[in-house]
Write a structure and sequence with these properties.
The protein has about 300 residues and is mainly α. The chain contains eight helices and two strands; from the N terminus they run H-H-E-E-H-H-H-H-H-H. It has a two-stranded antiparallel sheet. The protein is rod-shaped. The two termini are about 25 Å apart.
């Protein structure tokens, strides 16, 4: 079926003109997938907001770590004593701002670990969910194409059946009228058969399309039913995975908080208000980096097919 015919079928269904000559034509349903995809799209808006802020926060933390390392390596100002020749030599030997206990390599390692953990534990899974959602949007479009092809054929068959009844009734008045009606009916059926053959030659694409190109409408209907059920199954899995967003939100915040705590410890001094160890305890993991458990299963289940 051509794109224009699908467009006409879409308009008929959207404008509630989906009835046939007998008023009993009902479009093939696909409401559950439509609603689920709509809610998944709404969820992706929120996921994208969080993804954007987490990436922005990571960039800020990494910038802060780089600046911390550079500033800590810079020299402190010296104290000079006045002499007859002017300012004399420094009273103390040169010292960096970070002091003798500052570990620049530790701060560098913190930045590397931050990037690794954010990608592996937070940003990567969120990106896979978005890609899986886009994949299902494509499958939904293909399914809609198949559904419209099926409904278009159903509508043609119903219209031809109604026309056949009208022609038979018209020819009931006499032999000549019956023969003319029969000839018109045969011409109409030949036209439909020609369209079906054209579909078989021109259309291709996804696996179920061959069914809609066949002469068996029952096969086409079964193909659509299977495609709709498969999409619903994958949408169900995707929506269940959406519940893990809270885990990734918590993990993203904890990983970046851990990076700041570890960088503070690399300074080698006690921060105002407590020790580095106390800061770690306050962050949620005594003596180590904060740990937030992620989902029990990977997010999402990929690849989707």
């Amino acid at each position: 079926m051509g794109a224009f015919t699908r467009f006409k079928e879409t308009m008929k269904q959207k404008t509630l003109l989906s009835h046939c000559v007998d008023g009993k034509f009902m479009p093939t349903p696909n409401q559950r997938n439509t609603v689920m995809l709509k809610e998944a799209a709404d969820f992706q808006v929120q996921l994208s907001r969080m993804d954007k802020e987490l990436r922005s926060m990571q960039a800020s933390v990494e910038s802060l770590l780089n600046v911390t390392r550079a500033v800590a390596a810079a020299p402190l100002p010296h104290v000079y004593e006045e002499t007859a020749a002017g300012a004399g030599g420094a009273v103390k030997p040169p010292e960096s701002i970070g002091g003798p206990r500052f570990r620049a390599d530790a701060v560098s390692q913190v930045a590397i670990e931050l990037s690794r953990r954010m990608e592996a534990e937070v940003l990567g899974p969120l990106e896979r969910w978005k890609l899986a959602h886009e994949h299902l949007l494509t499958k939904f479009s293909e399914g809609e194409r198949l559904r419209l092809d099926l409904d278009g054929r159903r509508r043609q068959v119903a219209e031809l059946a109604g026309r056949a009844q009208a022609l038979q009734a018209k020819g009931a008045g006499g032999q000549k009228g019956a023969e003319k009606a029969q000839a018109q009916l045969e011409a109409a059926m030949a036209k439909l058969h020609q369209k079906e053959e054209k579909m078989t030659c021109e259309e291709g694409g996804w696996d179920a399309t061959a069914a809609i190109d066949s002469d068996d409408d029952a096969v086409a209907s079964e193909a659509h039913t299977q495609a709709e059920a498969d999409l619903h199954r994958q949408l169900t899995a995707l929506i269940k995975d959406a519940a893990y967003l809270r885990n990734f939100m918590a993990t993203g915040l904890a990983v970046q908080g851990s990076a700041l705590t570890d960088a503070s410890a690399a300074m080698g001094v006690t921060p105002a208000g407590g020790s580095p160890k106390a800061a770690r305890v306050a962050a949620g993991a005594s003596g180590g980096s904060p740990v937030v458990k992620g989902p029990a299963t990977p997010l999402p289940i990929v690849p989707l097919s």
